TrEMBL record:
Lineage summary: Bacteria, Pseudomonadati, Pseudomonadota, Alphaproteobacteria, Rhodobacterales
SUPFAM superfamilies: Carbon-nitrogen hydrolase
Sequence similarity: Belongs to the carbon-nitrogen hydrolase superfamily. Nitrilase family.
InterPro entries: C-N_Hydrolase, C-N_Hydrolase_sf, Nitrilase, Nitrilase/CN_hydratase_CS, Nitrilases_CHs
Pfam families recorded: CN_hydrolase
Protein name in UniProt: Nit6803 family nitriliase
Residue ranges of the TM segments: none
UniProt-annotated stretches for the region Disordered: 310-329
Domain CN hydrolase residues, every copy: 6-272
NCBIfam families linked: nitrile_sll0784
Family annotation (PANTHER family): CN HYDROLASE DOMAIN-CONTAINING PROTEIN (PTHR46044:SF1), NITRILASE (PTHR46044)
Amino acid sequence: MRTDTIRAAAVQIAPDLTGRAGTIERVLNAIAEAAGKGAEFIVFPETFVPYYPYFSFVLPPVQQGPAHLELYEQAVVVPSNETRAVADMARRHGVVVVLGVNERDNGSLFNTQLIFDADGTLALKRRKITPTYHERMVWGQGDGAGLKVVETRVGRVGALACWEHYNPLARYALMCQHEEIHAAHFPGSLVGPIFGEQIEVTMRHHALEAGCFVVNATGWLTEDQIQSLHPDPRLQSAMRDGCMTCIISPEGRHLADPITSGEGILIADLDMRLITKRKRMMDSVGHYARPELLHLVHDTRPAEARVVMPPAPNPEPFANVMEEETPNV
C-alpha cells in the first residue's frame, strides 16, 4: 500500500486570446505559483495553449475561416520552443505538468494533452480520440496509441479530455493500466451552469469507478474576452459558466471546494492510501471484473496515413530461371 501524499493543483485561469506567447507566459507563471504552494502535480485546462476554439461554438462554418486560420498560426508544434519552456519549468520546480494544447501537425490541428514529468521529459503526447460536435470542424482524430498510462514521479498518470469521459471504453483502457491519478480537463466558460454540473458528476463517477484520484481543470473567460468573441448577447451567454475545477478522491469526494467562477489555483493533498482502501472493496479491473464475460480489445497501433511495405525478394533473372541445359550432340 502506498503511504505517501502528493500535493496536486488544478489551474483555472483565462488564456491570452491574442496568441500563444501570452498564454505560455501565463502557464509558466501558474506553474511557479502552484509549485510555490507545494504542488507536485499541476493540471491546466483543455487546449489552453493558445486557447480553446470558442469561435467554433458561436460562428457558423462559413464564417469560421479567418479564426480557424489564425488558430493554425498560433497552434503549438511538438517539440518547439513553447514545449521546451514548459519542460524547463517543470524540471526547475520538480513538478509533473499536464497541459492541453492545440497541436499543429503539418496541415492538421489536434486536441492534444502533454504530460511533462518532473525531470522535464515529455512522458506522453496524446490526442483526443473523437472531437465533439462543433470541434470536428477544427481538429482531427487521435488514435488508440494515446490511451496510455505513464509512470511519473508522482505515480501512474492517465489523461482524457472533456467528453472522452463519456466514452466508457476509453476510460476503461486507462483503468486497466491501473492509473493512480487521472488528469482531466474541459474548456470551461461554455454552455452554462448545466455543463459544470455534468462535469462534476462525470469526475466523481470516474474516481469511484477507477479507484483513483481525479484532478480536473476547466478554463475561464473574462467578460471582455466573451464580448470580443461575438457581439450578440444571446451567443455571449453560451460562453459563461460551465466551470468545475475540482480534485476528487477515490471515494468520490471533493478534497477542496471546487472553483466554479473566476480565476484561481485549487490545491489539495492526495493521500495515496485511499486508492487501496477503495479497491479493497471494488477493483473494477481486478477482483470485481469478469474478463471471461466482458473484456476490452484495445488497438494500440498509431494511425498512419502511409504504411511502407517491405520490398519483395528479388527474383532470379528470367533467363537463368528458364534456361535449360543444351544436350550434347
